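USER: For my understanding, would you kindly supply a protein sequence with its structure tokens?

ASSISTANT:
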Amino acid sequence: MLRRTLGLFQVSLSGVGVILGAGVYALIGPAAALASNALWLSFLMAGATAGFTAYAYAQLGRLAPRNSPEFQYTALAFGPTAGFVAGSLMLVADILATAAVTIGFGGYVRHLLGTPLTANALALVVVLGVILYSGVRRSVAIAIVLTILEAAGLLFVIVIGLPFWSDTQYLVVPPSGFAGISGAAALIFFAYLGFDELGNFAEEMRNPERDLPRALYLSMAASTAIYVLVALSAVAAVGAAQLGASEAPLALVARRVLGAHADVTLSVVALGATANTALLLLVSASRSVYGMAAAGVFPTSLARINRASVPVAATAVVLGLLAILVSLGGLQAVASMTDAVVLVSFMLVNASLPWLAARRPAAVPARVRAAHTLIPALALLLCAWLLLHAGAASIMIALGLSGLALVAAPGTRMWWRARLRRWALRS
């Protein structure tokens, strides 16, 4: 069994740490190109979608406080086959997201040193593997230090942009209108990924039924506030057009206001931010594999843990897949694919809570039944709206992966075997 060593403070800071990271440091530029001065509204829209979905995670986490939350929550409502689809999609998304932020790390190193991006990213994979095998407490302790560093970098951007706020028109919409704002929200939804990963700490928390919902709400509120303020300051300091054209958008803000030395400083902070996000996503992905293996839907060998309570086989699989993706992908393309896959999984999770409220009323107190129906229903609609703006290729990939997961699900295989047995008997 995994050891219960984590409290509310550690998990909440880990939540903030995995949410803040490559999404805002790298994707704020392309998002500004789509949303113009209304970039803050795109962050708010993406944050609302994530926040309402976090409500479903928080409430379902009280009913099934175990690792691999998408699998556990969806299986609780719709059965193990649907749970396998949701859990598999989120696992793929975790690895895709880790690849995206690792590529972002490699890009910042190239910006500073001129070394090859892929080599930089693979070096980070090796370092993160060493940290992961040292145990969850050490991994989370390192993540907390890096979280403070990356939050400090974003607060720095907020502060240096404050003097320019009064000269900026924040209600100017892009030429494409609300479609541009929605497209930017779909892209920067990637920046909010991570709150869902807190469920993967459930079996290592001392009191998950009480602290998991609190950690979700705290990390989402803090991250959304920081993101909106960063968007306001970045647009005010350099303008949406120049922000959208930059490969290192927040470093551009620092250089414009304080000079070249600030560019280097913020690039170093960005390295810490992307490394931190990659570390926490890897912790969550390996626990997700462990949780599904322990439930019997993945090979049970992946549920093996070592003396440091690390799921060694699951971690090795995740690191291997990450190394392959880092060698093949690009940041924006991988981010768009990640968003589409995550949004489909989120839709399944959001559908689970109202379904349980209607079909299993004994599990849901009457005083919160309406909220358990309306809030996740709104989140489901917002997820569907953002999915429509994720791009046709990303949508097709997400639907294709959903189909593959459905075919590979143990329940589907059992159904086909039963049908074949009946057909053989009739013959």
Notes: The CA atoms of residues 248 and 388 lie 28 Å apart. The chain has a mean pLDDT of 81.
